[in-house]
Design a protein that fits this description.
This protein is mainly alpha-helical and about 400 residues long. Among the domains are: about 80 residues, Winged helix-like DNA-binding domain superfamily/Winged helix DNA-binding domain (Arc Repressor Mutant, subunit A, Orthogonal Bundle), CATH 1.10.10.10; about 80 residues; about 100 residues, no CATH class. About 50% of the residues lie in helices and about 5% in strands.
C-alpha cells in the first residue's frame, strides 16, 4: 500500500444522492497513490484486491464518479490492444465563474460593510471632526440635542439610487438572487452533469428577469415533453436558455390546447403501448451489481448473464417499469396520433410470443397480461416480411423512426 498519510474527499461531493459507499473508498484509494501532479495510475484489478471487492464493482464506481464529475479519466492504449491501467485524477474543486464570485462579493459587502450607505463625506473615526487643530473639544452647547431624523435624508438617497435599478425589484437585480435562481434551474436539468455550467450561467445572465422566471417555470415541462418522444438526447441547459425553447413549448400548447389526452389507458392499449415504447427507446440506466450479486457472479460466473438480465429488466428503464405498475395513465396527443395504426395481437398467440421474445432479447420489461385479456396492441408488422422475428424488429425500428421524424436529436 501507499505511505500517504492523508487522502482527501472533496466536500462538494458527499451530499450527492448518486454517491454510494464504495465510491468514497475508491476516492480515498486514488488519493493514496496520487503523484505530485495530482494523477494516479492504478489497475482496477489491484484496486479491487485492495478494497476486497470485485473488479466490476470498482469499474462501476469509477464510471459513476466520472459521470458525477469528481474524477477525471485519461485512457491509456496499450500497443498489443490489451487492457491497460488508466490515469485518474480527483477533482477537488468545481470551476467557479466570475458571475458567482461577483455574487459572493456583493453578499460579503452587505454582511461585513453594513455602513456602506452612510455619508461618504464623514471623516474617518481616527480624524478629529473639528479639523487639524489640537486640543480638547469645545464644551457642548446648552439646549436640546438635534433630532436624528433619518427621513430627512432618505428621500434624497432613494432618488439617487432609483436610476440604478430602474423599475425592477431588488431581487431581480441582486446578483446573489440571480445566482441562487440559476442554481435552482441548473441542478434540475437532466444533462447538468455533462453540461458546461459557465456556458449556462452566461446565457442565464443574458436573459431579462421575466425571461429567467419563465425559463425556470417551464424547465420541467419542457424536459418531460422533449423526452416523451423517445429521443435519446436532451439539449444542453445553455441551448435551452439561448434559444428560449420554453417559448416553443408555449407555442405548441397554443396550437394544441389539449397537450395531453384526458382518456386513461393501459400499456396494452394503442396509446399506452406507444408511450411504453418511447420510454424503452431511451438509453439504459447505468447499473452496477450489489455486493451479494457480485459475490454470486465471482463464485458462479455462469449465472452472470441471468443476474444482469434480471437487473436490466427491473432497473434499466425505471420510467417504463413505473408506467407498467401504474396500470392507468394519460398520454400526449402526439403519441396517441402515432399509435392509431397499431394492430391487435392475440394474447399467447405466435405473434404475441415473438413480441415477448423481442422484449427479452433487449432486456426490456414485459407487461404481464391480465387473465381475461384477449388482445393487446403493438406496432404494425410489415406485410411483405414473412419471418416473424425480422418483422417484429422492423416494426420496432419503423415506430422509432416515426417518433423522430422531422426532428434531430436535440429538437423538441
Amino acid at each position: 500500500m501507499s505511505n500517504a498519510r492523508f487522502s482527501i474527499i472533496p466536500a462538494w461531493i458527499v451530499t450527492d444522492p448518486r454517491l454510494k459507499g464504495i465510491d468514497l473508498k475508491v476516492l480515498c484509494l486514488l488519493g493514496s497513490f496520487t503523484n505530485a501532479e495530482g494523477w494516479c495510475r492504478r489497475s482496477q484489478v489491484k484496486m479491487a484486491d485492495e478494497l476486497n471487492c470485485g473488479r466490476s464493482t470498482v469499474q462501476g464506481s469509477l464510471n459513476r464518479l466520472y459521470e458525477i464529475g469528481v474524477v477525471e479519466k485519461r485512457i491509456v492504449e496499450s500497443r498489443d490492444g490489451r487492457d491497460s491501467a488508466h490515469y485518474y485524477r480527483v477533482i477537488h474543486d468545481r470551476d467557479v465563474s466570475s458571475d458567482a464570485i461577483a455574487a459572493w462579493q456583493v453578499a460579503a459587502a452587505e454582511e461585513y460593510d453594513p455602513k456602506s450607505n452612510d455619508n461618504s463625506d464623514a471623516p474617518p473615526a481616527t480624524i478629529s471632526a473639528g479639523g487639524a487643530a489640537s486640543g480638547m473639544a469645545p464644551p457642548a452647547i446648552s439646549g436640546p440635542a438635534p433630532i436624528n431624523d433619518t427621513s430627512l435624508t432618505n428621500n434624497l438617497n432613494d432618488g439617487e439610487r432609483a436610476p440604478a435599478r430602474g423599475n425592477l425589484g431588488d431581487e431581480e437585480e441582486n446578483p446573489k438572487a440571480i445566482e441562487t435562481a440559476f442554481k435552482r434551474f441548473f441542478v434540475t436539468w437532466k444533462t447538468a452533469i455533462h453540461d458546461s455550467e459557465p456556458d449556462a450561467r452566461r446565457e442565464w445572465g443574458a436573459l431579462s428577469p421575466d425571461e429567467r422566471a419563465s425559463a425556470l417555470a417551464h424547465s420541467e415541462s419542457y424536459q418531460v415533453v422533449a423526452l416523451s418522444t423517445g429521443r435519446k438526447y436532451l439539449c444542453s441547459a445553455a441551448k435551452y436558455l439561448k434559444e428560449r425553447r420554453w417559448v416553443k413549448l408555449a407555442e405548441q400548447s397554443v396550437r394544441s390546447p389539449q397537450a395531453e389526452a384526458t382518456e386513461m389507458v393501459s400499456v396494452f392499449s394503442r396509446a399506452g403501448r406507444a408511450l411504453l415504447m418511447t420510454k424503452l427507446f431511451q438509453p439504459i440506466r447505468a447499473l452496477s451489481l450489489s455486493p451479494i450479486e457480485q459475490h454470486i457472479v465471482d463464485n458462479k460466473p455462469e449465472k452472470a448473464d441471468l443476474i444482469w438480465r434480471e437487473k436490466k429488466e427491473k432497473q434499466g428503464w425505471p420510467e417504463a417499469v413505473q408506467l407498467i405498475e401504474r396500470k392507468r395513465f394519460t398520454v400526449l396527443n402526439r403519441i396517441v396520433d402515432l399509435s392509431k395504426d397499431f394492430e391487435p395481437v392475440a394474447v399467447n398467440g405466435p405473434v404475441w410470443e415473438e413480441w415477448k421474445r423481442a422484449y427479452a432479447e433487449r432486456c426490456w420489461p414485459w407487461p404481464v397480461a391480465p387473465e381475461r385479456l384477449e388482445f393487446a396492441q403493438f406496432p404494425p408488422l410489415p406485410a411483405d416480411v414473412n419471418d416473424l422475428d425480422e418483422a417484429v424488429s422492423i416494426a420496432i425500428e419503423n415506430f422509432k423512426s416515426r417518433l423522430n421524424e422531422g426532428r434531430d436529436d436535440d429538437a423538441a
